[in-house]
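Chain A, query sequence.
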Amino acid sequence: MLRWITRFLTPVTPTNFSVLQTDFHNHLLPAIDDGVPDIEEAVELAEALWRMGYQRIVTTPHVSAERYPNTSKTIREAECTTRDAIKKAGIPVVFRAAAEYMLDENFGKLLRDKDLLPLDERGHILVEMSFLHPPLSLNKYVFDLQGKGYRPVLAHPERYPFYHMKVDEYRNLKQMGCLFQVNILSLTGHYGPDVQQSAFLLLKEGMVDFLGTDAHRIRHAYTLQAALRSGHLEKVLTKYTFQNSEIN
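Chain A, predicted structure.
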């Protein structure tokens, strides 16, 4: 049933995501975090992203001490299985895995051991923080990442309520060396008006380095396709320049 529905997610809209080339924030590895539950939906979602114009998918399962204690080993194993299934389905998209790291105590250990899965050979690392408050060691994490040759990319800065509409706080993060990855779903209003307003504020201030889908389930593909079809994202994709194509 899912495959029949996905066949209609074709890039026939005025705009698609081909200008970005790479989506490097999504959750396509089955049953290892809050993303897709099985390999069937992983394939469906990969196909949907490809049909919306993406040429490369870097999937980023959560890594956190409390909820998702994934390791490089478990991620690599799931990556191989998922890549094989995508290839078998005949979907011509480049697929590989990295991770989305929670800035917690476990991350400090992974960083010390250099046991991290970067987004690319340039050392971009996707990181996130609690939605309740920033980590007390945020500055140290960012400093230590850069000291070890990594380039921190903060996932969905627009979604953290303690930063909403606070331009100076965002500027401080940028000055520390954080690159910003905004969720495309935020721009559609998927997470509510406060998040949407913060996302557009970051665009207006020229602070957005990357866009990501943060797709967890096939329903997110339907939301993205509807936004493309309505023209809601056309201005964003044509007016602003993003660095997604550098993640390859």
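The CA atoms of residues 134 and 193 lie 22 Å apart. The chain has a mean pLDDT of 94.
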